[in-house]
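pasting for the record
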Amino acid sequence: MIESDALQLPGLSHGFFTRGGGHSTGIFASLNCGLGSGDDPEIVTMNRGVVERALGVGEKHLVTAYQVHSADVAVVEKPWTADERPKVDGLVSKTKGLALGVLTADCGPVLFADATSGVIGACHAGWKGALTGVAEATVRAMEKLGAARGNIVAVLGPTISRAAYEVGPEFPAAFLSQDEGNRQYFEPSAKEGHFMFDLPRYIMQRLKRMGLKSAHDLALCTYTDEARFYSYRRATHRGEKDYGRLVSAIALRE
């Protein structure tokens, strides 16, 4: 579990969990927390229990969504079952004893906290969600629960780095159509007509524009650090049939 100094706040626990310390084997070794993976569901539940205990919340109080690369956000007031998961990519809550989690394997996990008002948030920011405003939507949802934007701290966890994220010639169009200034996040790659995309920097710039108290990047690459992190792109390059999911989570302690 990796912690950020910025989220060491009264009444909170959090963690950007690595792939270590769990029960899964093979390509899922070992702390795979993805309910949507092909791993044994009972073992995934055991792994999620490891996370719950580390964060100090009760059994089955780690809440995650059915992520669909959207900018939609749900308010969490109580735990839900795997079948009840809403199709959203942001979660917010002011309920103590719940851990809000996002699952990633290259996309950007962002944890948010306003310790003053006791409101927390988490979002899954892949390129689609980041582009369409999932981070901004999460902050707005926190504000509806009583958070103040100027009190919110945000931290971006392990994400695929620019050096490992090559995209095709058609990829930049969606970003450039929104803002020509987004060209700065693309650099030509060694492959003609292709680009290296800086997803972490793009997410961080959007966070910094929101007027939050602070925004931080752990600057950890999922693709290059195989010992600690799962990576969808690395698994794809190897022709592996599936991949594990990292969890990043935050909780208001009871």
